[in-house]
Amino acid sequence: MPGAGGALTPAVTGLRIGVAPHRLWAATESELDGVLEHARLAERLGFDHLIAGSHLLDTELGPTLEPVTMLAVIAGATSRIRLATSVLILPLYNPVVLANQAATLDRLSGGRFTLGVGTGWHAGEFEAVGSPFGERGRRTDEYLATLRTLWEKDSATVKIAAAPSTPGGPEVWVGGGSTAALRRAVRFGDAWHGSGLDPKALRETHIRLRDLADAAGRPEPAVTVGGFLVPPGFDTAVEAPGHHLGGARPTAASVLDELGELAAAGATAYSLWLPVPTAQFADALAWVAEQVVAAS
Predict the structure, then answer these.
(1) Which residues of 231-244 are buried (b: 16+ CB within 10 A; e: fewer)?
(2) Could you give the angle at the alpha carbon of 58 between the alpha carbons of 56 and 63, nearest 5°?
(3) pLDDT 10s digits, 8-28
C-alpha cells in the first residue's frame, strides 16, 4: 500500500497486515462490545483483514465471541476489509453445518471470508461437545476433506444449501507447528498459518513446508503469520506468551525491519493481536496504521 507520501518501503512491500478487532484476551464481555466500531475503524485505516479467535468456553483466556457469527456481523458493517478466523477449532464443529455457514458468509461478504482452522488444545471444550480430544487431528483432516468436497460445485455427494461465491469455497488457512499440521496445510490449505514466529523460526518452518509439499507432489501453500504487538507508548493489558513483533521494546523501525525479514522468509500476510487496554485500542490501531500499514 502507498505510504503517506505515496512511497513504498521495499522491505515490506506486499505484506498484508491484519488485526483483531478487540484486545487480546478480554477480561469482560463488555470489552468485546466495540468490535463493530473497531472493525469499521480498521477498514478506514487501511488494514487488509480482521481476525477472530475461537473458544467455546470461558477459559483462562477470558470471554470470546463465536468467530463465524462475529465475522458475519462485521461483514454487514464493512465493505472492503477481508475476514478470517484465526483460528477456528475445527473438530468442535459439525463439518456439514460449518460448510454451509462458511459458504453463506463467503457469498454475503462478496468473497471476503477466509477460514483459518486448527485442532485446538483445551480438553474441556472437547468434553463439552462430546468430541474425543485424542481424535482431534484425525477429525480435522476428515472435516477439511468434507468441507472441500461440499464446496465443490459438482460434488457427487450431498449438496449444501448455500453455495459459496468463491470457486471451490473460501480460502483455507491451516494452523499448527507440528509435522502433522504442516502436512495438513499441504494437503488441504491455501496457506499455512503460523503464530508468534520470529524470522529465523519462519525460515525453518518454510523449508519444512516446502520439503513436505515436494514429497507429496503438491503445490506449496502460502505462508501467513500471526503475532503480538504492544506499540511504543502504550500499556500492556496482558502478558502474551512467546515472541513479540519488533522485540521486547518495539519501535516503528524495529517492527518494520522484522516484517521485512518475515516477508523475505516467505510470509505473505501478518495478523496482529494487540494486548493493550481496551480504552487504548483505537489509538493503538491508528499507530499501527500510520507506522506499519502505510509502509506495507
Answers:
(1) beebeebbebeebb
(2) 95
(3) 344 455 799 999 999 999 999
